[in-house]
Amino acid sequence: xxxxxxxxxxxxxxxxEEEMLRLAPLPHERVVYWGxxxxxxxxxxxxxxxxxxxxxxxxxxxxxGVLKTPYFRALNPRMxxxxxxxxxxxxxxxxxxxxxxxSKVAEAAVGMSRLMTPQHRTIxxxxxxxxxxxxxxxxxxxxxxxxxxxxAVAQSRLHEANEILSVVGDLVVYLRRFPIDKRxxxxxxxxxxxxxxxxxxxxxxxxxxxxxxxxxxxxxCDFTLFTNIAYAVRCGLQLxxxxxxxxxxxxxxxxxxxxxxxxxxxxxxxFGSKVLTKT
Length: 279
Known about the structure:
Layout: H1 17-22, E1 31-34, H2 39-50, E2 56-59, H3 70-75, E3 83-85, H4 95-107, H5 110-115, E4 123-125, H6 127-137, H7 148-160, H8 162-177, H9 185-205, H10 220-234, H11 244-254, H12 257-262, H13 265-269
């Protein structure tokens, strides 16, 4: 399955702390730190696009070690993306907060001082937390159902969808780590069984539906499912003929503007892996 055909200049990868400091968020800016090909980060970009929230994105290089720098660790001590930095809240802090934050500014680099000024700023990491924050903070363009009962199902599906990434990732890591002649057939069979069981569950969830909950409108749970399925397809997973509902779901969402606009840049210009392609 091919990537959506969108003419878009790929973002420049940020690979040093110096670049991070230079690109640090200005007080009025909303900035998202992400990585090309990360399903967790991709769904944040989709959500921002769906809500039409202006933002600047900073695409980091995974291999550069920039996520381990002091600057990025100040944003997320777990040293991973995505991270959302919101514009400054203009309400004044208390005197104690002023003293603490002013001290931090004095000790920080010039770029960090843009971020850690004596005002309130919201920084959110972990993709699920970011999605929930965006939905609560910006309800004008909802990405979740209004009904509490349907909202509960949507939240369940959103968190369930990460099981796909777990079992697919486990299989991909094993297949990449060991050449064919070094693999344990029983382990491979068991890992494939986990993947197939998980995909079959989602195939059943889509029975009679274009999307997980709504006939015409995808929600955050759909975008989460999509990004995880897209990663599996990128790794060579075949949906056609095996999981027809998932295949149609995937194709349907590939055409959505928010997904076309945020398609992982390096996926447009390189071929995916064949590690999950059965011969």
